[in-house]
Amino acid sequence: MSSAKTPRHTQGIVLTRTNYGEADRIVTFLTRTDGKVRVIAKGVRKEKSKLAGGIELFSVSDIGYMAGRGELGVLTSSRLVTHYDAFLHDLSKVEFAYNALKLVHTFTTDDAPEEYFVLVQQLFTALNEPRLSLEAISVWWSIQLSNVSGHALNLEHTIDDNQFTLDTVYIFDTDHAGFISHENGQFTANHIKYMRLALLHGPLMLANVQGGQELASDLAPHLKTFVEYQF
Predict the structure, then answer these.
(1) Residue 124: Cβ-neighbour burial (10 angstroms; 0-12, 13-18, 19+)
(2) What percent of the chain has pLDDT over 90?
(3) Exposed e or buried b for every residue in 144-180, given b needs 16+ CB within 10 A?
(4) 221 close to 139: Cβ distance less than 8 angstroms
(5) What is the mean pLDDT of the chain?
(6) pTM of the complete model beyond 0.70
(7) CA 58, CA 17: separation in Å to the nearest integer?
């Protein structure tokens, strides 16, 4: 049996950072193997701190920490693996990333499974990709987050159990997480196909969809509202 004083090692993504005392920070990591971990990074705000590089926002880092008797552990090591900085000049993408991290932090439990870590890492990759619009990223993120959290959208058939057809228009029903035909609907079977791609593939696939920008612009605000409603 391992000692309680043996550091644990995993990969982490910073969800929150809060200054504490004169030189410390309290950091919440979303980790690959240990769920959410809250640690104190001692002396990290000092100029020569060896921990500072591994607690950057929008990054993946290798971290070591000692679990505490309470909920707060101690960060013992941190090494930056990947910093996703290509999108930092785009304030709208930065704001989206902040809000995504806040959402994940607020609505996941301490034992958050690895799927959330992978999803956030994919989000950073998507934000770094100049071929992807923010609307496309938003569609992909909303669908994937809903799926991982157990609030998956019904993209196989309509709410009333009919097949999607090319000559029918649909409205989105937030309460039932799906679509239903309506004479004033704004969504078509092409919108549904786009969402299926977003569910089954990584976000980069959406950059290759002909007419994808228009589809994403139609869908993004509705899916954002759905995610906020569910969470």
Answers:
(1) buried
(2) 91
(3) bbbbbbeeebebeebbeeeebeeebbbebeeeebbbe
(4) no
(5) 94
(6) yes
(7) 12
